[in-house]
Amino acid sequence: MEITNPQLYEELQHDFFHQLRECVALRLVSDADGRSTHDVANQCVTDIMALGFNETREAAAADLLEELANNPFVEEVYEEDVLQRIEFSAANFSDEIQLFRQFIQAVNHGRKDAALQPVQARLMTLRLRKGR
Questions:
Q1: Is the pLDDT of residue 126 over 60?
Q2: What backbone phi and psi angles, to 5 degrees, belong to 110?
Q3: Residue 2: its H or E element
Q4: Distance (Å, whole) CA 14 – CA 113
Q5: Sign of dihedral through CA atoms 62, 51, 5, 19?
Q6: pLDDT in tens, 10-45
Q7: Non-local CB neighbours of 106 within 8 Å, separated by 6+ positions
Q8: pLDDT of the residue at 27
């Protein structure tokens, strides 16, 4: 999947990813490594994007591996770790991957009003479930 309307994507991406990150954070329990929920949610959103842009988990892992290898703030990248991340996110965030794909489709069709509606509805549902 690719972005064919980059101007609309740029305009809406901040709001979309903020809400998607909140959805992920509401679904996370606590992280065993002691990292903040925000940090883990950011990592999961990166994985969700890789899975959303690619047809297969292997392609998503390859893209993420390349992105991390080119990141000057990441010292070492292990293919097995990236594959585990992708598998975890694919197994636990299928709804969020679908939300990302719906967002891209709406953006590509120029449907600004419809682009954020699915993620907003998901966030409201999760907040209600959590009592927030």
A1: yes
A2: 75, 20
A3: none
A4: 15
A5: negative
A6: 999 999 999 999 999 988 865 445 567 788 888 899
A7: 112, 114, 115
A8: 86
pLDDT at 131 over 70: yes
Of 28, 24, 36, 14, nearest in space to 116 by CA? 14
- The radius of gyration of the chain from alpha carbons, rounded to an integer in Å, stands at 15
pLDDT at 32: 47
Torsion of CA 120, 85, 26, 111, to 10 degrees: 0
Distance CA 124, CA 2 (A): 28
**Who contacts 90 (Cβ-Cβ below 8 Å, separation ≥6)?**
47, 51, 57, 60, 97
What CA–CA distance (Å, rounded) separates 67 from 131? 37
